[in-house]
Amino acid sequence: MNSRLRVTVRGMGLSLTLLGAALLACVGGHIPPSTFQFQNVVPYSPPQGGGWKVAQVVILLSRISSAFPLTATCDIEVGVPEKNVNGWVLDEFAQIEAAKAADKAARIVLREKIPTALACQQFREHMQRILTEKDIGPIPGAKVSGFKEVGVPRMTFP
Amino acid sequence: MNPELTADALVQLVHRYYPADLGNEDPRYEQSEEGRRLEALLQAHVNPSPAWKEFMLRLSRELPDCWLWDTTIPRHDPCYECRVSLPGFQVGDPLYDCVVCMVSKLAPVYALYASHRDKNDPSEEGYWLRFPPFPPEFQSQETKLAALIESTFGYTRLPNDVLFTPVPDLVPRTANFVPGQAHLIDCLFTHYRW
C-alpha cells in the first residue's frame, strides 16, 4: 500500500472514530461507576436495620437531531439501603448497578421522542425501575429522585 | 370518627404542605410557602423521633422472629416507614412476605399494606402489594402491628377510601408524577410503595 493511500485510510479511520464518539455521546456513552460516590446519610442500626446512602450526579443527556434535538441537564440522586432483603448493599456493587441503570435509562430516553421538559423525569423513572424491577432488579429499595439530600459530594457526567 | 381525619379535612391539611398546580421540578415548588413548610417538617424529623425509636424497639421485642427493615428516607417523605417480614424470613430468602407500616409526620394517622415477593415465581403472582383486606396469612401480623402502632403513637388507621382520595392538583416531593396522579396516601405517607 503506497504512503498516500495509507494516510488517506488512516485519515478516514480517524474521522470514523470521531463520528463514532459523537454518536456515543448522543446515546449516552458509558457512565463510569466511579461517577456514583455513595455517602451514608442514615446509619444502619439494629434492631431496625435499613440505613440509607446516596450519590448525586448531574447528567447531561444530549441528542443531536435536526427533527428532535435534546439537551437536558438532569439532577440524579440515587439512594440505596445499606442492607436490604438480599443482604448488604456494598458501595462497589451499588456503583456498578447505578452506572448500568443510568446507561440503559439514557439510551431509552434518547431513543424516544420525549419533550425536553419531561426527559429528566423519565430518565429517573426508568433508572429506578431498572434498579428495582420485581424479579431481576439488583437493588430492592433503591430510589432515584432529584437532589434532596444535603452535604453529599456532587459529580457530573460527562 | 375524628372530624380532623376525614378525607376532606386531610385534603385541606396536605394543601398546607404541597403547592397547588406545581410540578416538583418547578423552582417555585420548593420556594413556595407550602414547600418550605414541608421542608421544615422533614428537617425536624431528620433524626427519628423518640416514639419511632420506641416503636422499633417494641417491634424487635414482640416480634423477634420477624425481620425488620426501617425504610424511612428522612428528606424524601413525610412518613416513617418499616417493613416487617412474616415470621421466619431470613435475609437472602427468595420468598419475602411483609407488612409495611407507614406512620405520617403530617397528621396522627397510619396505614398498612401487605407485600409479597417470590423470586422463584416469574408469574404475575410472584410480586404484589395489597391494601386491606389482607390475605389470611398476613392478618395476624396486621392485627399485632396495628395494636403496636396505636399503643405507641395513639394514631388512627386510615381506611382505603380515605387513602385513595385523589388530590389532582398536588405532586409529592420526590415522585416522578405529573399533576393528576396523586392521592392522599402519596401526600400523607409516600408514593414509593413496593
Task: Quickly list its features.
heterodimer, A: 158 residues, five-stranded mixed beta sheet, 3 helices, elongated, disordered N terminus, B: 194 residues, six-stranded mixed beta sheet
Poorly predicted ranges of chain A: 1-28
Please identify the oligomeric state: heterodimer
State the separation between the terminal residues of chain B, measured CA to CA. Answer: 29 Å
Class per helix and strand makeup of chain B: alpha+beta
Radius of gyration of chain A: 19 Å
Counting structural domains of chain B, the number is: 1
The biggest sheet of chain B amounts to: 6 strands, mixed
Q: Mind summarizing the main beta sheet of chain A? A: 5 strands, mixed
Beta-strand residue fraction of chain A = 15-25%
Strand % of chain B is 15-25%
- CA radius of gyration of chain B is 17 Å
Please provide the count of β strands of chain B: 6
Instruction: Sketch the topology of chain A as an H/E string, one letter per element.
Output: HEEEEEHHEE
The span between the termini of chain A is 39 Å
User: Runs of chain B with pLDDT <50, length 5+?
Assistant: none
Count interface residues per chain for the largest interface. Answer: A-B, 32 and 30 residues
What level of helicity do the residues of chain B show? Answer: 25-40%
Number of helices of chain A: 3
State mean pLDDT of chain B (0 to 100 scale). Answer: 95
Description:
The complex is a heterodimer of chains A (158) and B (194). In chain A, 39% of the residues lie in helices and 24% in strands. Chain A has 158 residues and is an alpha+beta fold. In chain A, the strands form two sheets. In chain A, strands 1, 2, 3, 6 and 7 form a five-stranded mixed beta sheet that branches. Chain A has a two-stranded antiparallel ribbon with strand order 4-5. In chain A, helix 2 (91-111) crosses helix 3. Chain A is elongated. The model of chain A is unreliable at 1-28 (pLDDT under 50). Chain B has helices at 7-14, 27-31, 33-44, 50-62, 136-153, 160-163, 184-188; strands at residues 68-70, 79-85, 95-104, 109-118, 127-130, 156-157. In chain B, helix 4 crosses helix 5 (136-153). Chain B starts with 6 loop residues before the first helix and ends in a 6-residue tail after the last helix. Chains A and B meet through strand 4 and helix 3 of A and helix 4 and strand 1 of B.
